[in-house]
């Protein structure tokens, strides 16, 4: 079976500095791979290259057999919805001035999957799926708690019908009693939708708990 | 009554806005040379408490209660001198426009009547105490590495040799290894000078690694307060127990669902009567909903809960 994500010999450089130095790993559907290591070890640069937020210097990023590094931005557009990021700062990753429901609807509109009444129904369904009362869709991000806001961010990522989520410190900004709820949600969504997760964090306990395999990076290389 | 051996005593502290208390009557002691962690989630009032200790309550806040240092009320002259702050946004403690040594010397001169020369000497000494060569005192903050800047912030808090250092989540933005280094250095400096450290944090692993005693706050009030090893090994307040059980670090198979404390903390002003945790507490009774639990001694700590008990099994 083709792995969902197949990273081979990835190299990311910033000027003369090598942030990622020949990294290879795979993520299968329904599997969580944890990526840990100290600040500056290259884990976030790896995530950025996987999401094609930046073009790697060398190596391959295959998503469902498709080589992403070679794709033009126009061709990438068709693939992007299938791999979605979830970031640490739930408030920062949502627009402060637009209602939650409009932000969750956006991927549906952009991908031409918006219609009435199916569109609004899908938004309500996504909110429900992440454990939010659909009435919260009427709110602005600052009117939600940190935990609710992170759930809304996950709902927006799910609106694209992704197969892989790149989770970059998704629970680090949350209070302990809310963190457990979001971790449980991620486990439920994976069971239900068969999502693959690349989970990047320095919260070792959370990574160990969520992951099938944990890779440790140091100075740009995977060391275990 | 404040403990007679306490360095800093807080009694009945209330801090609020527009008549609504966020910190709702808090009492605790900081013993000489100890590290006390103030633990709580967002909105529990821990940062507001820390600010109140330093006379830095935000504009518009009202406060009541007593803060005693060596048994006498804290005065504005103590702030920054006998009680010092390591702020949350640590780097904001340094101005980008002046050499670090000058900023330290200014901090010394503003509270101690030292000559310019003596202040400069003390500034150089404070830098070397945190492992920054005194020769670098003419450097600007941006000329330092990230780690050195963190240490310069500690030097800023320590330069006037305070009795109490209050560190308000000083390391949340750092990775765990750097966090440990910064807190380890701060702890070492405090013990070298005999200062006490009040560590404000929401991270229980930081508490486990760095604190002697902990005060767990919930909705602006004390839930549980005592030695770290005791509280973490066997939490007696239902809130503390729920919090600890929800941590992913417990001994459980990977990918199992974590026990979640249902609901969310109350908004300020929301807990009308009784125990603020009652709506989320599996053990709540009618009494919990009407009568606020007073902190009481139990098993070598203080617990504010009507039903907490040492189950003898
Ligand atoms: S007083 Fe009652 S509601 Fe509050 S923590 Fe104790 S048992 Fe729970």
- Give the oligomer, counting copies of the same chain as homo and different chains as hetero: heterodimer
The termini of chain A sit apart by 24 Å
Strand order of the largest sheet of chain B: 6-7-8-3-9-10-12-11
Strand order of the largest sheet of chain A: 6-7-8-3-9-10
Distance between the termini of chain B: 34 Å
Helix content of chain A: 25-40%
Mind describing the biggest β-sheet of chain B? 8 strands, mixed
- Number of structural domains of chain A: 1
Structural description of this entry:
The complex is a heterodimer of chains A (224) and B (313). Chain A has 224 residues and is α/β, with parallel strands linked by helices. Chain A has a single domain, classed as Rossmann fold (3-Layer(aba) Sandwich). Chain A is 34% helix and 25% strand. Chain A has helices at 43-50, 73-79, 100-110, 118-129, 146-159, 176-193, 204-210; strands at residues 5-14, 17-27, 32-36, 58-63, 66-67, 83-86, 164-168, 196-200, 213-218, 221-222. Chain A has a six-stranded mixed sheet with strand order 6-7-8-3-9-10, sandwiched between helices. In chain A, helix 3 runs parallel beside helix 5. The model of chain A has no long low-confidence stretch (mean pLDDT 92). With 313 residues, chain B is α/β, with parallel strands linked by helices. Chain B contains nine helices and twelve strands. The two termini of chain B are 34 Å apart. The A-B interface holds A 32, 38-39, 145-147, 175-181, 183-184, 187-188, 202-206, 208-212 and B 41-42, 174-178, 202, 204-205, 242-243, 246-249, 252, 254-255, 257-261, 264-265.
């Amino acid at each position: 079976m083709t792995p969902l994500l197949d990273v081979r010999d990835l190299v990311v450089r910033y000027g003369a500095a090598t942030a990622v130095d020949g990294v290879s790993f795979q993520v299968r559907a329904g599997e969580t791979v944890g990526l840990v290591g100290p600040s500056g070890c290259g884990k976030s640069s790896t995530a950025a290259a996987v999401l094609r937020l930046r073009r790697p210097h060398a190596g391959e990023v295959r998503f469902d057999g498709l080589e992403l590094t070679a794709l033009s931005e126009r061709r990438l557009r068709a693939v992007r919805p299938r791999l979605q990021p979830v970031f640490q700062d739930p408030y920062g990753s949502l627009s402060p001035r637009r209602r939650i429901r409009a932000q969750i609807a956006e991927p549906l509109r952009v991908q031409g999957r918006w219609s009435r009444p199916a569109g609004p129904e899908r938004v309500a369904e996504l909110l429900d799926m992440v454990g939010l009362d659909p009435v919260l869709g009427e709110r602005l991000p600052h009117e939600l708690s940190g935990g609710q806001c992170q759930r809304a961010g996950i709902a927006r990522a799910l609106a694209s019908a992704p197969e892989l989520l790149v989770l970059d410190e998704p629970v680090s900004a949350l209070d302990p009693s809310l963190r457990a709820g979001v971790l449980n949600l991620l486990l439920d969504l994976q069971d239900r939708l068969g999502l693959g997760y690349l989970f990047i964090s320095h919260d070792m306990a959370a990574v160990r708990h969520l992951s099938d395999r944990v890779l440790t990076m140091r100075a740009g290389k995977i060391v275990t | 009554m404040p403990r007679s051996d306490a360095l800093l005593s807080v009694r009945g502290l209330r801090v609020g806005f527009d008549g609504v208390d966020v910190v709702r009557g808090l009492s605790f002691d900081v013993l000489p040379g100890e590290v006390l962690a103030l633990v709580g989630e967002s909105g529990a009032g821990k940062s507001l408490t820390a600010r109140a200790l330093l006379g830095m309550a935000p504009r518009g806040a009202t406060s009541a209660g007593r803060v005693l240092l060596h048994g006498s009320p804290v005065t504005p002259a103590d702030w920054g001198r006998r009680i010092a702050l390591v702020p949350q946004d640590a780097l904001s403690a340094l101005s980008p426009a002046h050499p670090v040594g000058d900023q330290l010397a200014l901090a010394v001169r503003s509270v101690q009547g030292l000559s310019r020369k003596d202040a400069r000497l003390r500034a150089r000494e404070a830098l070397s105490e945190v492992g920054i060569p005194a020769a670098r005192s003419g450097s600007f903050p941006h000329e330092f590495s990230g780690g050195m800047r963190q240490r310069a912030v500690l030097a800023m808090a320590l330069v006037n040799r305070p009795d109490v250092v209050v560190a308000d989540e000083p390391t949340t933005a750092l990775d765990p290894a750097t966090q440990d280094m910064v807190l380890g250095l701060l702890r070492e400096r405090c013990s070298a000078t005999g200062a006490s450290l009040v560590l404000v944090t929401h991270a229980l692993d930081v508490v486990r690694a760095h604190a002697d005693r902990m005060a767990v706050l919930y909705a602006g009030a004390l839930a549980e307060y005592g030695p770290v090893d005791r509280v973490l090994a066997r939490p007696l307040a239902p809130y503390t127990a729920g919090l600890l059980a929800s941590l992913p670090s417990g001994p459980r198979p990977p990918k199992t669902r974590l026990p979640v404390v249902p609901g969310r903390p109350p908004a300020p002003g929301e807990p009308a009567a009784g125990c603020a945790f009652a709506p989320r507490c599996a053990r709540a009774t009618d009494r919990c909903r009407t009568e606020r639990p007073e902190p009481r001694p139990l098993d070598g700590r203080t617990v504010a809960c009507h039903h907490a008990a040492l189950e003898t099994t």
